[in-house]
């Protein structure tokens, strides 16, 4: 690829080489990561705003690479999507999250809904509904305690996507739209898709109190959810002032650093234990 003859072609600068080789390392690592148990799942509480109780948790994958250290899902999930490795990885997360939620219930903690991120590649694989059904059956978790977070890219008006969503709804699973409002899609999908909830993206929540346009968007999304009979949850809530605003506007739930960062499962048990004590 690199040729320094008389034409002096030099496609890769040293910086580019570094990016490419990190990418290759990550891709090779992803393939081995599952067998080598390098992935874990952290959980972030979702809080009912009026009562302040934890009613759900979002499962967020973590990867401890043997050489490169902790790698953010923002870096490796897109790579897993490109390479198709998101399918085995996503299935692992789904099963692990269901298993963990059942284990909390078996330990006598108040029942939670567990929200699992589903990438569009995973959703579009054939037999996705069966994968979900198997994860529930094999872990013994009741379907009403599972929520799937879908993005607007999945919802691109396809008859196929609609039929899978109906299949999942028929099983009793809760469906939500993640990063709502960032996907450039038309709002008409809201009447076509059998969804239960909207998640207000953190890019809108962040400057809610500084930027009147963000405030208008958040307010409008909350009202729209109410009018459509959907649950609405705000993500990226970091301050008491933001929470106060959301309470005033009757947003149902909130998630963010104000309550807790994503934490290992043992910490969730402690949090819930404190709640019932
Ligand atoms: P997301 O689904 O939008 O998840 C929310 C992200 O925001 C998480 O980052 C979370 O740690 C972070 N966050 C939560 N509260 C706050 C807050 O108050 N302030 C700020 N600044 N950030 C907050 P994380 O865990 O790094 O995940 C990044 C993205 O990677 C996720 O965005 C999701 O798109 C993807 N992802 C994570 N786990 C999975 C997974 O198991 N499967 C799939 N397909 N995607 C995943
Ligand atoms: Ca999410
Ligand atoms: Ca999100
Ligand atoms: Ca996001």
Automatic annotation (TrEMBL):
Keyword Transferase: no
Species of the source: Paenibacillus albicereus
Protein name: EAL domain-containing protein
Keyword Transmembrane found: yes
Occurrences of domain EAL (ranges): 23-276
One GO cellular component term: membrane
Superkingdom to which the source organism belongs: Bacteria
Keyword tags: Membrane, Transmembrane, Transmembrane helix
Lineage, uppermost ranks: Bacteria, Bacillati, Bacillota, Bacilli, Bacillales
